[in-house]
Amino acid sequence: MTETEQNVNGEQAPEVGAEAPTEEEAAGPGAPPPDPAEQLPPKERRKLARSTKTGGAAPQRSAEERARERAEQRRQKARRRRAYRQQMRERRRSEGPRAEPLAPEPRARGVRKVREGVVVSDKADKTITVRIDVARPHRMYKKVVRTSSTLHAHDEGNAAHVGDTVRVVESRPLSRTKRWRLVEVLERAR
Q: Which of 22, 126, 129, 147 has a beta carbon 3.0–4.6 Å from 121's, enabling a disulfide?
């Protein structure tokens, strides 16, 4: 075969090593030439725009000159900050006094936590182990999630027994593990 091969239709194929026709040639003689920047993806377009910026490189500066420029920039920023903060102070003053006082008031004694649960052990003297069951919906999935925790409560008269439903209240530490106190027995075990 020769350098030019013939296609199935009898047309001549381009020579081996010849360049493919450009888009202008493919579009035809009457079509306007496409803008090369429009055909690039956005990231490439931004890169091209940055590379074609006008203006030469900044002149070489010594370390002292750079330090002076930086100090001047910091002074300007500090002036702007002071002006902004002064403006905010003026605005707050014009709004008038705040409704709540700035200093916190001395707090009264906090409200103690109250829990209801089932006694799972009463073997220790004047102490019961209470299981607290909690069922709450999951924050995101809304499925009901059941959890339980146990705590030790002080039972002065050994009134509660295994299986009883009781109410306990938070108290000062009574031992290494006891921080709750029995208030009442709500329901006796059968």
A: 129
Task: Say if residues 118 and 151 touch (Cβ distance below 8 Å).
Answer: no
pTM (predicted TM-score) = 0.44
How remote is the C-alpha of 50 from its chain's centroid? 33
- The CATH number of 114-187 is which of 2.60.40.10, 2.40.50.140, 3.40.718.10, 1.25.40.10? 2.40.50.140
Domain ranges of the chain: 114-187
Distance in angstroms (rounded) separating the CA atoms of residues 163 and 40:
75
CB atoms within 10 A of CB 164: 19
Residues 167, 116: Cα–Cα separation, whole Å: 4
Question: What's the Cα-to-Cα distance from 174 to each of 116, 124, 127, 178, 182, rounded to whole Å?
Answer: 19, 14, 10, 5, 12
- 133: three-class secondary structure by DSSP: strand
Report helix, strand or coil for 41. Answer: coil
Average pLDDT of each block of 10 consecutive residues along the chain (190 residues)? 49 52 53 65 87 80 94 96 94 77 66 96 96 95 96 96 96 96 94
Burial 79-109 (b: 16+ CB within 10 A, else e): eeeeeeeeeeeeeeeeeeeeeeeeeeeeeee
